[in-house]
UniProtKB/TrEMBL annotation:
Record keywords: Glycoprotein, Membrane, Protease inhibitor, Serine protease inhibitor, Transmembrane, Transmembrane helix
Pfam families xrefs: Serpin
Entry keyword annotation includes Membrane: yes
SMART domains with a match to the protein in the record: SERPIN
Gene that this polypeptide is encoded by: SERPINB1_4
Protein name (record): SERine Proteinase INhibitor
A GO CC annotation given for this chain: extracellular space
Family indicated by similarity: Belongs to the serpin family.
Transmembrane segments: 20-40
Record organism: Dermatophagoides farinae (American house dust mite)
Length: 402
């Protein structure tokens, strides 16, 4: 799902989500999958902003379908080549009184291989819907993420959920017996914690990248030589001194400086340098770690990056998502984008999962009740839908006549 065009976005998002002193985990692939599904359902400025920010593209109406097909093809190739270790499910839940536009539904199923379900979001029934969604998500993440929704807003028209589970072992595993407790200095530069450190001396793709003053290493996974964990370690004295000579102000930490400076150019240069350098014997110490992150405020970050109209009740144009059957032209917008992600890294390998949830809401005022008083002649039919059959058809002109 990610292409070169999206890497800077991913790095900017990482920068913008990073809080001093806190761990962070984001699954851009899941986020991009979910947001790319929205491209297929959007029009006008809403679509332009998504394309520009996610893929640095500006496309005409005619170019959209081929572009989405190309994204879909790459996505399927990716899934195919990593199917033993990467499991991804795109799930679309529709409120039972809305109907997906046929073209949008086809894009979802063919390009993103999404599964679609209709559910009752009415408050009295939504317990069942919540259960169905959480069960699906739990299944798709191998039981690791048990709850992504706790209640449903009856104004949600659809929920797009993308779930990923990844599990692979290192091509070169760490020996359990070499792991030991060791010190780890936090980014404030002073606090030292004791942590479980894994150790391995081995030939790795490695380089010292001068421009950012980082050491870089790739730990390949066993399933596929194209999959690896890339670790970038800043030297411990590379923080920016933003505050001139004022020693009372803390220096920017080395990690913050790295995150701020990182971009596509540097990333490519690091990977190129690794290829150019012969693999080296490295004594690697790496803590075992586990991170669980929940990002509730992604909308704010996307706004800053230039995706705006889709989150605005008045400006969003998601008119390619639904056909106007039960709802008279519902006005749709995206009211939340949430991601939960987890990773566990140990001597054997890595297990990670992510869930991205995008809620598409329509402004349907709960107080407003449609009125239909049949106090004049009308036409009626008894029909079967899908396939459509008209079983009875009639006109009532006078209820007193039989
Ligand atoms: C959305 O865009 C389409 C295509 O340009 C346009 O016909 C439609 O009126 C727009 N709808 C809304 C609600 O803005
Ligand atoms: C929903 O539940 C409330 C309270 O239990 C009840 O008053 C209302 O009639 C129910 N509505 C529907 C549509 O079932
Ligand atoms: C950097 O790390 C080395 C070795 O751990 C240590 O001796 C040195 O004091 C550290 N420098 C700073 C600025 O923390």
């Amino acid at each position: 799902m990610s292409s070169n065009d999206s890497i800077d976005l991913i790095l900017n998002l990482t920068k913008s989500l990073h809080n001093f002193g806190s761990n962070l985990l984001l699954c851009p692939y899941s986020l991009l999958t979910a947001l790319s599904m929205l491209i297929a359902g959007s029009r006008d400025k809403t679509r332009e902003e998504l394309l520009q920010v996610l893929y640095s593209k500006s496309l005409s109406d005619k170019e959209i379908v081929p572009f989405l097909e190309q994204i879909g093809r790459k996505h399927r190739e990716f899934l195919e080549s990593h199917k033993n270790v990467w499991h991804q499910a795109s799930l679309v839940y529709c409120r039972n009184d809305v109907m997906l536009d046929a073209l949008f539904a086809r894009s979802l199923s063919q390009m993103f291989m999404a599964q679609t379900k209709q559910l009752d979001f009415h408050p009295n029934k939504s317990g069942d819907a919540v259960r169905v969604i959480n069960q699906d998500v739990c299944k798709e993440t191998n039981g690791r993420i048990e709850q992504i929704v706790s209640q449903l807003d009856p104004n949600f028209a659809l929920l797009l959920i993308d779930a990923i589970h990844f599990k692979d072992i290192w091509a070169k595993q760490f020996e359990q017996s070499k792991s030991h407790m060791a010190s780890f200095r936090l980014s404030d530069g002073r606090t030292i914690v004791e942590t479980w450190m894994m150790q391995k001396t081995e030939i790795f793709n490695y380089c010292h990248y001068e421009s950012l003053n980082v050491k870089a290493i790739q730990l390949p996974y066993q399933s596929n030589q194209k999959l690896a964990m890339l670790i970038l370690l800043p030297s411990n004295d590379t923080g920016d001194d933003d505050n001139g000579d004022n020693d009372n102000q803390p220096k920017n930490s080395a990690i913050k400086t790295l995150v701020n400076r990182m971009n596509l150019g540097h990333l490519k240069a690091i990977l190129d340098e690794m290829i150019a350098t012969t693999p080296q014997k490295v004594e690697l110490s790496l803590p075992r770690f586990k991170i669980c992150s929940t990002h509730h405020q992604l909308i704010e970050h996307f706004r800053q990056l230039g995706i705006r109209s889709i989150f605005d009740q008045c400006q969003a144009n998601l008119s390619a998502m639904l056909t106007n059957v039960a709802n008279n032209n519902p006005k749709l917008y995206v009211s939340e984008v949430i991601q939960k992600a987890m990773i566990e890294v140990n001597e054997q390998g890595t297990e990670a999962m992510a869930i991205t949830k995008v809620s598409v809401r329509n402004k349907r005022s709960a107080e407003f009740i449609e009125e239909m008083i049949c106090d004049r002649p009308f036409m009626f039919m008894i029909i079967q839908s899908d396939p459509l059959n008209v079983l009875f058809s009639g006109i009532l002109e006078n209820p007193l006549l039989s």
